[in-house]
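Blinded run. Sample ID left blank on purpose so nobody reads anything into the name before looking at the predicted structure. Input follows.
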Amino acid sequence: MRVLQVCAEIFPLLKTGGLADVAGALPAALAQQGVDVRVLLPGFDAILADLTEVAEVATLSAPAGLQGRVAARLLYGRLASCAGVVAYVIDAPDFYHRQGGPYADAAQRPWGDNHRRFGLLGWVAAQLAQGLDSYWHPEVVHAHDWHAGLAPAYLRAAERALGRKLASSVYTVHNLAYQGLFPSGQFSDLALPEDFFGVHGLEFHGRVSFMKAGLYFADQITTVSPSYAREIQGGEQGCGLDGLLRDRRDQLHGILNGVDPAVWHPGHDKLLPARFNQGRFTGKAQCKADLQTQLGLAVDANLPLACVVSRLTSQKGLHLVTQVLPSWLERGGQFALLGSGDAELEAAFRALAQKHPQAVALHIGYDEAFAHRLIAGSDLIWVPSHYEPCGLTQLYGLAYGTLPVVRRVGGLADTVHDTRLETIDTDATGFVFDDFHPAALHHALNKALALWTRRSDWRRVQRRAMQQDHTWDGAAKRYLWVYRWAAGLTSSS
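Blinded prediction complete.
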């Protein structure tokens, strides 16, 4: 089966969140299942710089609203840093060669023409389905998140014009809260049929929604965990789209993200000062001592070290952390954070670090190599999210024997099993709480500290956590089944 993955970022070249990790790992896992997979990406500088064996497929004759001053080209090649995956890259200098981030400028103001920049991405996907590359065309177009949300819409528009089916489409929601909303007046730039801007289409409370386009026009929909698939059909997590998602519940599938063991595995992670596995933990102890030294924390193996690797946003529940952290420190715990975001949260964590320099350390920003060392050297990783479609950091924690403390929501509920007296010998892999309240997180941390004092039981839970299979193999098989269903080749699981 020929599958085109359409996304805005890909690890390790460009990453703002978990979407990039999925885009970087899923193609190789699908290839192991016999899928002929290629990716379509915007021509951001880092992506163009990594493209090898480059050939020009076509000069793009896009609709006027999707054109820049310089004609865009579609390039073909392999991404050297992404296991040589075959890629189509849209070289559109006016749209993608900019200072700042992929979605916003250096001051975090969204680019005013994002609807055109990512409309072009969806339009090119549909062009490939129509045979833009005479040597290869997809049977399934798999679009990821709002940036690629128009791909199913352009595909449906082309099929209407031609009077025939071109390709099946699958749309994956990575985070429903980020919907790609634009003023209604910008719809005309997209060159879609006028009737596509309506309740049965892109219109969302008078605005254009790229996310709704994907949800409405795709043949099948996936999201990144079974629990999140259920949650987004309700009012609290549905972000106003819950009615549409309930209508499409028979086409909605929750597929857990995986972890790429080539990138995240303590037994051969070259970013660590020492390697380790579930049978030999001396390397983890060395990682902890090295991390404590690097961060200026008291070097003491007996002090439980907790970490957070996260964007600092309200979604991630980090205001709960600021409220329970003083109690954690009073009981001898240490804490380290890697992330950036909300200015008030950054200031709160800085104040705690200044007050407790030997117990609290911050790294504001993001550093992939340091993320590996931080997770490997910590004893616990906290993920107290208000909502969490899948979550990846708790999966990294499990892989590295760094026990997760999570709220029972979304993918966190699907991947971490609470440690209780009756579960310690069966399925315990971390610590789970329910209420989105500091007292609930505090109770979970009390359980963690109680287990910490029973080191043989702690080690038992660590080993079980590291034994969990969250590789991409199972997810790839599930995606292949969804592709086949979208294409009408199967009708049951």
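Unblinding after everyone has recorded impressions. The domain at 2-258+473-486 is CATH 3.40.50.2000 (Rossmann fold).
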